[in-house]
Write a structure and sequence with these properties.
With about 450 residues, the chain is of the alpha+beta class. About 35% of the residues lie in helices and about 20% in strands. The chain contains 13 helices and 20 strands. Strands 1-2-6-3-7-19 form a six-stranded mixed beta sheet, covered by helices on one side. It is elongated, with a radius of gyration of 25 Å. Zinc ion (ZN) binds near residues 88, 117, 152, 421 and 422.
Length: about 450
């Protein structure tokens, strides 16, 4: 069976499908401000119904999750698709060239809040299913959907929902289209994320700030205390000296190394993008550092007087904020304990906060057949080989799929690299939206041949 007829149908329905997307883009759904959320959840449910998908809205402690399912007893494969219907606040409004909630096409791009992040991408899945069914009468695999309304707030209620609905969410693969294509223009296939642990450490000196002359050498300075502690935590080569920090790290596999070598890399472009022209780094080191090495980063250091001019004090407190990016299989709780032990050994009077944020890393092996099938599906629909990445440098709660559900999880973002998500004039290229619809059709088709 070929997908030619499905692709023709998608092309014929261009205007209709754009209007379907516009309908959902016009509906505000700003989770941070709780604006339009419930209305949007119902609209998503209507879209499901139109596409022949059974659905239900689940209330959580926060904002609702829309669940959808389309299945037949004879199908043997189940795909679980994840997406989100909430969007970022549109501000600053004056920077938008057109109303963020009135989708407008200019030069081949659809401009609207949520166009790329993530309405344009999950709508591509829905319209793919509709197109496929209208040609073939049914889907050859089962598809389940979780479209949540709190992604832009960090998905606070998603882990519990998934834990409590394991049976409902039983599947063979989690598939997501969220984020952007590779900067080379090729589609990305992302197989994981780094985790993160965020903590704060506070040193205290005297009860108040003292005169640095009249009390100099008498009153201890907590800023130095904190610096001394930090120096025991990391050496000048960037190595973390906290006992146990590297215990759980897994090295990249041969196939990880192979796909990392295939990721396009342009040092000059990187320099420009980060605003640091002195960077000297080859591709292999760059990819390895981003995907397979943890970080120990000072996000902020606060102590004493930092305003203009001169003020001479011995500060009474010093605080440092640290974010630690974690790689497989570093456990945030274990790393936190290591830090606790390190502090109690080296500077027991320095206070360690609770874990201010913590999310484990997540990986799906590039060896799996499902990765190859998705890569083939993407190539078939875009005509271009995708860039496969073992991991993002950043952190997302992908562990929900790989660790709570124990499933492989693949993110193949459909939006263009310059979608401007979270920024004014967010957009998705019309071409990317329709390639996305085709990509989902090809993914469904590929897994039916399994
Ligand atoms: Zn977003």
């Amino acid at each position: 069976m070929s997908l030619e007829r499905v692709e023709e149908l998608i092309a014929e329905r261009k205007e209709v499908y754009l209007e379907k997307l516009f309908l959902i883009l016009r509906q505000k759904s700003i989770s941070a401000q709780n604006v339009g959320i419930r209305e949007c959840a119902h609209l998503v449910q209507d879209m499901f119904t139109e596409c022949g998908i059974q659905s239900e809205i689940y209330q959580t402690r926060g904002l609702p999750i829309v669940y959808g399912e389309i299945s037949r007893p004879e199908n043997t494969f189940t795909l679980l698709i994840y997406g989100h219907y909430d969007v970022q606040p549109p501000e600053p409004l004056e920077k938008w060239l057109s109303d963020p909630f009135e989708p407008t096409i200019r030069e081949g791009r659809i401009y609207a809040r949520g166009a790329g992040d993530n309405k344009g991408q999950f709508m591509a899945h829905l319209l793919a299913i509709r197109s496929y069914i209208d040609v073939y009468g049914h889907l050859p695999i089962n598809v389940k959907f979780i479209i949540e309304g709190e992604e832009e707030m960090g998905s606070p209620n998603l882990p519990l929902f998934v834990e409590e609905h394991r049976e409902l969410l039983k599947a063979d693969l989690v598939y997501t289209a969220d984020g952007s294509s590779h900067e080379s223009g090729a589609q990305s296939i992302l197989l994981g994320v780094r985790g993160m642990l965020y903590v704060e450490m506070t040193a205290k000196g005297a009860e108040w700030d003292n005169h640095s002359g009249n009390k100099g050498n008498i009153v201890p300075n907590p800023a130095w205390k904190l610096i001394d502690l930090l120096k025991t935590m990391r050496n000048d080569q960037g190595q973390v000296l906290i006992e146990g920090f590297y215990d759980q790290i897994l090295p990249p596999s041969e196939i990880d190394k192979k796909i990392m070598r295939e990721i396009p890399y342009d040092l000059n472009e990187v320099k420009e993008k980060i605003g640091y022209p002195n960077l000297e780094m080859d591709s292999e080191t760059y990819q390895h550092k981003l995907m397979f090495e943890p970080t120990f980063n000072i996000c902020g250091f606060n102590s004493g007087y930092t305003g203009p001019g001169v003020k001479t004090i011995i500060p009474s407190t010093a605080t440092v904020k640290i974010d630690i990016r974690l790689v497989p299989d570093q456990d945030p709780d274990y790393i936190y304990q290591c830090i606790q032990q390190h502090i109690s050994k080296h500077a027991p009077d320095i206070q360690l906060s609770e874990q201010l944020y913590s999310v484990p890393s997540s990986r799906t092996s590039p060896d799996l057949e499902c990765v190859r099938l998705v890569a083939e599906a993407v190539e078939a629909s875009t005509g271009r080989k995708p860039v496969i990445q073992p991991s993002l440098g950043g952190s997302l709660p992908d562990y929900i799929w790989t660790k709570i559900l124990g499933l492989p999880s693949i993110n193949a973002p459909y939006a263009n690299f310059d979608q401007g998500n979270h920024s004014p004039n967010e957009n998705i290229k019309v071409e990317n939206f329709f390639n996305g619809i085709k990509s989902t059709c090809h993914v469904i088709h590929k897994f039916s041949e399994k």
